[in-house]
Amino acid sequence: MAAIKGNPKLIGRSTELTAVLRALDDPDQAGCVLVGVEGVGKSLVARHALAAVAARGDDVAHVIATRSAAAMPYGPLQSLLCADGAVGGPVARPRLATEPDHRLVLLVDDAHLLDDASAALLLEASADPTVSILYTVCANESLPDAVTALWKDRGAARIEVEPLDTAGVAEMITDLVGGDVPDWIARRFERLSDGRPLEVRERVRAAREDGRLVDVDGRWELIGEPPIPASLVEIVTARLDHLDDASIELLEVLVLCAPFPLALVDRLGLAGALDELEGAGLVGVADHTRSHGVGIVPGRGDDPGLTVHLEHPVHHRAVDARLTERRRRELYRRVAEASEECGDAGGRSTLWRLRAGDHVDAGRLVGAARGFFRDGDYAHCGELAGAAWRREPSFDAGQLYGYALGEAGRCGEAELVLAAAEKSAADDRELALITLTRSENLLRGLDDPEGADALCRAAEARIDDRQWRSELVAHRMMGTLRAGRIDEAVSVLDGLLDPAVHGERAYVTAAYTAGIACIHAGRADDASAIALAAMPVHESLWSADQLTEPGVHHITTLFALVATGRAAEALPLLEFARDLTRYVVPRYGYAWMNYLAGRAALRLGRCDDAAGYFLEAAPIFGESGREEEAAWCEAGVALAAATQGDAARARMHLDASGSLHDTSDRLNAALTAEARGWLAVAEGNSAEARDHFRAGADDALVVGDRLGASHLLSALARTGGAADAVDDLERLAATVQGDLIGVQLAVARALAGPDDADSLLAVALDCELRGLLVEAAELAACAARELRRAGHAQAGARAAAQGRDRLGRCQRVRTPLLLDLSTAVPLTARELDVARLAADRRSSKEIAQQLGIAKRTVDNHLRNVYQKLDISGRADLADALGIETGASSPSVHD
Predict the structure, then answer these.
(1) How far is CA 58 from CA 76, 101, 134, in A?
(2) CA distances from 513 to 287, 483, 489 (A)
(3) pLDDT above 80: residue 358
(4) Which residue has the higher pLDDT, 880 or 44?
(5) Which of 213, 235, 790, 863 is most enclosed, with most CB atoms within 10 A?
């Protein structure tokens, strides 16, 4: 929608603006009332409507109701009263309404703040057919009776202004930055702002200013979480000044103690304030009984149940900035006392006592820390255990504190604390627990797999209890798995999956590692069975000391769905899991759901979505010291970008992946190899790409990563190496579980076999039914080529149309086989490489150097390309291929 002079551009509000203008033109309606939450854009819609009616000759006036003006009767309307109208008289009317033969449209912004006299005067004026009243009111605010009567009694239109949807947010960001942004960035800002244009605008500006929203070679990239700008905090802070003392106190308590038990609100005498703030949309009440940990499973004894929380982080920032240290301690002490009066002397009251500066003995601190550990709240666990460790060092305090430090990414400090705590280990249990914690920190946090392995083996030799030894062996297998000895890990873990022999703790530890190992080994169905069997056992043990959340097995079952070719089934489940884990601790549970959603989206051709999922997960993994997982996410973004032909973006994220974790981890090396191969394709070198895919597949087969090998071999087949890939895929198909391997083999056979359009189309349909739309589009393109070559032009056109339809459901995918959807005559693989590089303004000499061929050969290929595409030279290549110049990427139908 075009901007109206004097107002910012109106985005995503054409329906609302049309409805307002229709209401203002209707002689049977007294006007219009726009209702919506703060920052949703009511005033902008109203101002555009006012400008539109002014442009056609109507008189207009605009006043803003404020709390200060409401202190005086008719305060906001003083400038509009008739010169001879007695204030408070029966017919006091706005000045402009007295103009003969003119209609007045009066906009009153924030009409919920009108004083009663002004509201009554305007209601009376609305009876005049030459006057139309346009109100904006904030949802959840109490209104003067005369404002409500405008639509209840006088028939004014009441129009709800809802938050912007993703498309509206995307359009707004595009307008702000001057370029298109990927859908995932729009969705991120939509979630952060709740679709409120004011917040979208301010957060986009802040993200650009601090370098988090950047233009990378013509494509916008969001790095990390957009900041909360001071401008938004100032707006919210000004609104806080009008709240009463009880409401301010409740907001302060929520900033310090959220999620805050609902039962304690009554105890503090703040129930009335809660009603007011909840009605105003500032706070919410939630049921946290199912919001603990990775696993999305029921809580236990210390569960807060119904809790109260602030609805938006901007409010948190604004309230927090007003709190002095003395006020903080005063509030912590007050809520601790209220909690203890209710009979709770557990984790929350202990934490609040500590923060109030009160003396708390070390035993109570450790007990409370253990409760937070069981809830997956490692930050609060570490705060309490650290205080206990500094006050009175003990094994329990050190082990808990060291674990929490590792979870916070402070792995060097964690090792120092844990090594000191190990000296006081008194029995097999304590030695096993400290060893499990230290080895995990060494393996994951300090990238010392040899040290972790040696530590476990040394403890195993000292421990007499078989069950604790078995748990150490099961834990050690995670290092074996990451080192790339997948089959060895599977073999050892299979022998530990008997709780009657090895104990239930060892069993559930072995089950999680075995599940991940089996997926990579090609036994995804077995992995699901192992996870489902272990889940109830794990849940029954969750209260045991130092045992992770049962929900880790959900990771296995969801990953197994993706690995067996059921990504279309997995993605809705992962979206549901993302919603459940978004605000719970530990935060890396949410990161795992994003990582798996990214892998699922990649297989479905939803590259923008995949990048968004990975980029949301990466910083969360990084916060908790999981740099390996953060590196996998960066590699995932690189793969998504490369599949879209965006070489610059792919290389940037591959570099980020390497800088995050240049490690001995080989478990996900196949993902990086796949990204490197598709990057070579995007850079116009299919031969180099095939080398990456072949070498990566060979490495994956050596370490037993059959899942990774199958993806790499499939990529090899789709980039001109089908004949090379078929034999290995046939061998994998004999051992790998799930339907995906069969589809990958069928694709490779169709591409390697004789030119048979019917076979290509049949396999393409099978791919489509399984959600593999990229492969389906590629095969349709190949079939179209063969049909055209055989002289069946109409059949070829139909096949090409099928391919374009499938590709249209993907997100800007560009692969070599898809070029046939946009060119009438097929090019060879080498001609395609040369043509793409020439379209990117490379000289023949540069192309020859990059592809390792002679300059004369380059020129010969170009002559063939010009003839096949019926163009005169290089200047026409980009248009003929559908390539954006400067991108070095194959073209697709978007």
Answers:
(1) 22, 10, 14
(2) 32, 13, 8
(3) yes
(4) 44
(5) 213
Residues 6+ apart with CB under 8 A from 715: 674, 677, 678, 689, 693
Q: Which of these, 653, 580, 571, 586, lies nearest to 620 by C-alpha position?
A: 586
What is the mean predicted confidence (pLDDT) over 493-498? 95
Supply the angle between the helices 504-520 and 552-563 in degrees, to the nearest 10.
20
Contact 519, 560 (CB under 8 A): yes
Beta-strand ranges (E) seen in 172-298 are: 213-216, 219-222, 260-261, 283-287
Q: What is the pLDDT of residue 820?
A: 64
The β-bridge relationship of strands 306-310 and 213-216 is unpaired
- Strand ranges for 228-385 from DSSP E: 260-261, 283-287, 306-310
**Which residue in 739, 784, 789, 790 sits closest to 764, CA to CA?**
784
Largest CA-CA distance found in the chain, in angstroms, rounded: 102
DSSP of 469-503: HHHHHHHHHHHHHHTT-HHHHHHHHHTT--HHHH-
Single pTM value for the model: 0.79
Answer yes or no: is pLDDT of 825 > 60.
Answer: no
Judged by DSSP in three states, 31 sits in strand
Contact 36, 139 (CB under 8 A): yes
Strand partners, 64: 109
Q: What is the mean pLDDT of residues 562-575?
A: 94
Tell me the residue type at 674: E
Q: Which value, in Å, is the radius of gyration of the alpha carbons in the chain?
A: 32
> Higher-confidence residue: 571 or 124?
571
3-state class percentages of the chain: helix first, strand second, coil last, to nearest 5: 65, 5, 30
- Can you give the pLDDT at residue 894? 27
For the beta sheet containing 283-287, the strands, ordered from the edge strand earlier in sequence to the opposite edge, are: 260-261, 306-310, 283-287
- Contact, 769 vs 778, CB < 8 A? no
Per-residue tokens: 590: 């949410």
Of 34, 20, 36, which is closest to residue 163 (Cα–Cα)? Answer: 36
Instruction: State the helix-helix crossing angle for 245-257 and 325-341, rounded to 10 degrees.
Output: 80
Number of Cβ atoms within 10 Å of the Cβ of 663:
13
pLDDT value, residue 801: 85
Q: Alpha-carbon dihedral of residues 605, 606, 612, 618, nearest 10 degrees?
A: -30
Residue pointed to by tokens 């980029």: 615
Distances (CA, A) of 452 to 329, 465, 468, 474, 774: 42, 20, 16, 13, 42
For 789-798, write each residue's pLDDT tens digit.
888 878 888 8
Residues 462 and 426: beta-carbon distance below 8 Å = no
Give the single-character DSSP code of 162: P
Tokens of 661: 């974790």
Which amino acid would we find at residue 97?
A
**Contact predicate 87/134, CB 8 Å:** no
Quick check: 600 and 562 in contact, CB under 8 A?
A: yes
CA of 499: how far to CAs of 296, 477, 512, in Å? 24, 17, 14
Q: Which whole-number Å values give the CA distances from 205 to 38, 108, 636, in the listed order?
A: 19, 29, 28
Q: Over the stretch 498-512, which tens digit does the pLDDT of each residue have?
A: 999 999 999 999 999
Q: Decide: 353 and 360 in contact? Cβ < 8 Å.
A: yes
Between CA 369 and CA 211 the distance in angstroms is 38
**Would you state the structure tokens that stand for residue 98, as one six-digit string?**
């007295």
Amino acid, res. 489 = A
**DSSP-based three-state secondary structure for 298:** coil
CA distance 141 to 159: 16
